[in-house]
Structures are given as C-alpha cells and as structure tokens.
C-alpha cells in the first residue's frame, strides 16, 4: 500500500540572489526544483525515522480514518503503520523575487 501525504507546501521569497538575474522564469523554476528536491529528501527521512519509531506524529492514521475509512478498516494500525509506504509530497512556489519584484 502506498499512501501519498501532503507533507508541506512552501511559499518562498527570494530577497537576495548572487547567481544572476532572478527575473528569468527558467531560473525561478530551477530554484523551485532545487528547494523542492532538498526538502523532499529531508521529508522522506523524517517519515522513515517516524515509522521506525512507530510514531504517527504526522497523524497519517487520523487522516486515513477520516478520508479513507475503507482502507482504515482493513488495517491493524499499530502493526501496519511501519510497513506502509508513505510518500510525502512537497511543493515549492517562489512568490517574490528580489527587493523589487
């Protein structure tokens, strides 16, 4: 069973950037992708550690219970939680760039 979880949505403001002009949409997408990849990797590590500790700090069980009751009824949560393949979903959006946007 794979469960995708809306882990975090970041709205980023760039106030100083030494690489070049931040007006380029291609560069903004590259920055968003770089931040997304970094945060995604960290989120996956957090989920992995929580599952190893059998800790449902993110309340995945509560969300399953509320929004996917059929799936919830099939699970023995205390035993199955560590075995569920949880894929955190991270999104990053640059909303401001530079001092003058």
UniProtKB/TrEMBL annotation:
InterPro entries: Spore_GerAC-like, Spore_GerAC-like_C, Spore_GerAC_C_sf. It comes from the Bacteria. GO terms for biological process: spore germination. Pfam families: Spore_GerAC (PF05504). One of its GO terms (cellular component) is membrane. Transmembrane segments: none annotated. Residues 8-98 form the Spore germination GerAC-like C-terminal domain. This is Spore germination GerAC-like C-terminal domain-containing protein. It comes from Priestia flexa.
């Amino acid at each position: 069973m794979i469960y995708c979880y809306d882990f975090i949505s970041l709205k980023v403001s760039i106030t100083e950037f030494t690489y070049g002009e931040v007006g380029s949409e291609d560069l903004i997408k590259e920055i968003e992708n770089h931040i997304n990849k970094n945060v995604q990797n960290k989120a996956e590590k957090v989920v992995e550690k929580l599952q190893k500790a059998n800790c449902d700090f993110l309340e995945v069980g509560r969300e399953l219970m509320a929004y996917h009751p059929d799936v919830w009824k099939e699970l023995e949560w205390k035993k199955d939680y560590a075995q569920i393949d949880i894929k955190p979903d991270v999104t990053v959006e640059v909303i401001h760039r530079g001092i003058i946007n």
